[in-house]
Structure to design on (237 residues):
């Protein structure tokens, strides 16, 4: 029976500032570093031996994975990064303060943009290389996306589109490892992990709105040969 562990990255610098983060590549805050290390301590206490690690191409997820694996004594395991595990792209909301956005558009509208399954946020107008958010260039022009076909880079996403983006990588890589009996750890983001959980647990479009994955608290699945969930545990202190 294979184990799949999902870890939401620790608090980022922009999380701490209450800004929409999305694809903007921010670092972990001091609190986020501690959360990542605590995730590794929890994994070490659980005694799970991993065969493969996956993460996004965003720094906060990559460093969370590394801190966690180091604390668990497994920094040596194979690791693969994919843009398909990136956070949901928040479109034109990226870089905006969440409280200020609520004042501008109303609490209800911002809540719908943040939590609904299939409602899109305001989209970016175009792939403009001069576009910056809080002084940072729109990340589609970062060279880490140079191999991604232009039409696949988003101008904004809801959870439905995020799931559609994540699933090809699940099918081509992650699920194959699990079916081979490997234990897999994924360090990624709140919405890319919620999308995976929706698929794994067969959660309805309505019920997924209530699923929260806490920063730095590993979610452990035991999966059978058909990748159906046998058990699910959230590791906490």
């Amino acid at each position: 029976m294979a184990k799949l562990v999902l870890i939401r990255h620790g608090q980022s610098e922009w999380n701490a500032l209450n800004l929409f983060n999305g694809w903007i590549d921010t670092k972990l805050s001091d609190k986020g570093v501690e959360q990542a290390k605590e995730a590794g301590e929890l994994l070490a206490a659980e005694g799970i031996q991993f065969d493969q690690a996956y993460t996004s191409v965003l720094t906060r997820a990559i460093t969370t994975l590394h801190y966690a694996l180091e604390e668990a004594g497994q920094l040596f395991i194979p690791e693969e990064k994919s843009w398909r595990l990136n956070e949901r792209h928040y479109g034109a909301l990226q870089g905006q303060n969440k409280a200020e956005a609520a004042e501008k558009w109303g609490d209800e509208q911002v809540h719908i943009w943040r939590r609904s399954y299939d409602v899109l946020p305001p989209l970016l107008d175009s792939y403009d290389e001069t576009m910056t958010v809080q002084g940072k260039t729109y990340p589609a022009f970062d060279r880490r996306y140079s191999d991604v076909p232009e039409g696949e880079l988003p101008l904004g996403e809801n959870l439905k589109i995020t799931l559609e983006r994540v699933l090809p990588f699940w099918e081509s890589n992650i699920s194959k490892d699990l079916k081979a009996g490997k234990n897999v750890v994924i360090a990624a983001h709140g919405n890319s992990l919620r999308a995976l959980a929706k698929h794994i647990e067969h959660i309805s479009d309505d019920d997924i709105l209530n699923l929260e994955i806490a920063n730095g608290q590993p979610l452990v699945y035991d999966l059978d040969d058909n990748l159906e969930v046998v058990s699910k545990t959230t590791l906490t202190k």
Notes: The chain has a mean pLDDT of 93. DSSP finds seven helices and eight strands in the chain. Strands lie at 2-8, 52-55, 79-81, 132-133, 136-137, 184-188, 219-223, 229-234.
